Design the sequence.
């Protein structure tokens, strides 16, 4: 059995209670994003060898200078940003939607996107670029804490991604098919992962959210949502809130979105949201962590890109595992685009050839994923 990783020798501290418990020994510690200005700390007596203070607020400039003189690494706070580069956790939908009302969208999510766009999303100045990279690093770190990788690179949670277009209408065939697939996957113990937006992505997180509920409850939830079928329709967010109010104890799932492509309403059904500025980091991460497979529903160019990026990772065993690639929709992936037969040709003779599957049936999709676990590269025949 592969041992669980210990995340190195640095002890991470991201809350005041734990900081106080450490007393005067902060050697090999990373203190992240804490307001220490209200604590009466005698920094002269605190051991800070190989210590890091990232975005912390101190009682005085003298305290910060003292820490630097003792050899601690102090990363300064950024001022005037709508986001915290040194955050210690993933986002929740409630945090991203803070400030939203049906009359005015002043949500944190939109405020961050507006700032991102105004600062030049493709070419920000050096300080903004640094803050964004530190933020995405913090998201990486929080995501790893959630997923818990072992020494072989496998996650403790069994992640299955569901990819597809953001334009799928609530209540439409593709939406219902994906929601049902995600519900079945979650019931089998898989953590469903999506790109975090509307359409197929919302359907994936919705299905996982409704996994403790009945099939009829899922149908009722979709009926509520379908009253505002497009994310551009009035009441779109309110219908999602109505579902959550009716079914408050939903299952867990993960969303990995980005601010890069523009502002879309936050997906309210994911329990953890790893939102990035950098789309390249986000895209690579989204595919890399879904080691138990990815289900491809109907999508357009973005989904096609993800298919071939995933195929490349499988072709070369980039992340030391070969994982299932499942296509949900015969008409789309066989008749309309020929993507599935093309991929079978590419995979011929490769380990992942036996991990390709095409179906219109959510139950068949889940059965295939269950019967085809990821193959460790060293164990491949």
Sequence:
């Amino acid at each position: 059995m592969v041992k669980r990783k210990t995340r190195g020798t640095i002890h991470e501290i991201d809350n005041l209670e734990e900081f106080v418990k450490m007393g005067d020994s902060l050697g090999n510690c990373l203190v992240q994003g804490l307001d220490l200005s209200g604590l009466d700390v005698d920094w002269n007596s605190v051991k800070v060898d190989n210590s890091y203070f990232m975005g912390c607020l101190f009682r005085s400039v003298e305290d910060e200078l003292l820490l630097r003189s003792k050899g601690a690494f102090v990363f300064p706070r950024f001022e005037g940003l709508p986001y915290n580069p040194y955050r210690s956790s993933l986002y929740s939908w409630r945090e991203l939607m803070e400030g939203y009302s049906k009359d005015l969208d002043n949500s944190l999510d939109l405020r961050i996107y507006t700032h991102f766009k105004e600062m030049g999303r493709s070419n920000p100045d050096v300080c903004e670029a640094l803050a964004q990279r530190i933020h995405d690093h913090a998201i990486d770190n929080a995501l790893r804490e959630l997923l818990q990788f072992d020494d072989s690179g496998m996650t403790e949670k069994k992640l299955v991604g569901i990819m597809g277009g953001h334009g799928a209408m609530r209540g439409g065939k593709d939406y219902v098919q994906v929601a049902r697939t995600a519900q079945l996957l979650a019931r089998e113990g898989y953590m469903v992962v999506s790109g975090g937006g509307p359409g197929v992505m919302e359907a994936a997180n919705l299905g996982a959210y409704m996994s403790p509920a009945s099939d009829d409850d899922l149908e009722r939830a979709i009926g509520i949502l379908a009253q505002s079928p497009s994310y551009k329709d009035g009441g779109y967010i309110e219908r999602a809130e109505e579902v959550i109010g009716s079914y408050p104890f939903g299952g867990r799932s993960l969303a990995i979105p980005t601010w890069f492509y523009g502002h879309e309403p936050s997906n309210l059904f994911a329990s953890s949201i790893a939102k990035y500025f950098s789309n390249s980091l986000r895209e690579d991460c989204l595919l890399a962590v879904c080691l138990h497979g990815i289900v491809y529903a109907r999508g357009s160019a973005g989904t096609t890109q993800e298919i071939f990026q995933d195929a490349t990772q499988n072709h070369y065993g980039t992340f030391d595992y070969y994982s299932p690639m499942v296509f949900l929709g015969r008409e789309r992936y066989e008749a309309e685009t020929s993507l599935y037969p093309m991929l079978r040709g590419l995979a011929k003779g490769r380990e992942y050839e036996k991990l390709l599957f095409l179906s219109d049936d959510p139950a068949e999709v889940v059965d295939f994923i269950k019967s085809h676990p990821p193959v460790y590269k060293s164990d491949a025949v």
